[in-house]
Amino acid sequence: MHLHRLEKTWLGIGITMLALFLAILGTMAFSMGMAPPSEHHHTVDPRKVAETAPFDRPGITQVGDKHYEAVMVAYAFGYEPEKLEVPAGSKIDFTMTSSDVVHGFEIVGTNINLMVLPGEVSHISHTFDQPGEYLILCNEYCGTGHEYMKTTIVVK
Ligand code: CUA
């Protein structure tokens, strides 16, 4: 097949653009990887979650007026603690990690929806104004028990 000169030129431009794009992408990924960790970013050894504070004692603690702190561990296939209970109007600060693979943490009926990564400590807060049972679901496929991975927050 005969390539017209003009086609060759366009092909050349196309390849140059692609190379340029990949170079930019590579530089971006590199500089992002090199960026200093943000102050709230910290990690734990996922194999030692059960021995590492605060994850050695998962549970919910009252820290103020209608203010709670929940330490949670996501694992295949569940969450620790199994059930949380707070009075209506309470704010819960969640601190969590995964002790094995990537899990999800979605509180149905709220805008809380995040990934829980092994070794990464995630923080998120939510105020539960409406009484009810809030379902927490794993929305990252994590294995055969994925669809059974859930827990509940009871707001009274
Ligand atoms: Cu944990 Cu899906």
TrEMBL record:
Q: Which reaction does it catalyse?
A: 4 Fe(II)-[cytochrome c] + O2 + 8 H(+)(in) = 4 Fe(III)-[cytochrome c] + 2 H2O + 4 H(+)(out)
Is Ligase tagged as a keyword?
no
What are the coiled-coil residue ranges? none
UniProt entry keywords in alphabetical sequence: Copper, Membrane, Metal-binding, Transmembrane, Transmembrane helix
| Matches recorded under Gene3D superfamilies | Cupredoxins - blue copper proteins (2.60.40.420)
Q: Which GO terms describe its molecular function?
A: copper ion binding; cytochrome-c oxidase activity
Database matches in SUPFAM superfamilies: Cupredoxins (SSF49503)
Q: Which PROSITE patterns match?
A: COX2, COX2_CUA
Q: Name one Pfam family in it.
A: COX2
| Domain Cytochrome oxidase subunit II copper A binding: start-end pairs | 63-156
**Protein localization:** Cell envelope
What is this protein's name? Answer: Cytochrome aa3 subunit 2
Q: Which organism is it from?
A: Cohnella nanjingensis
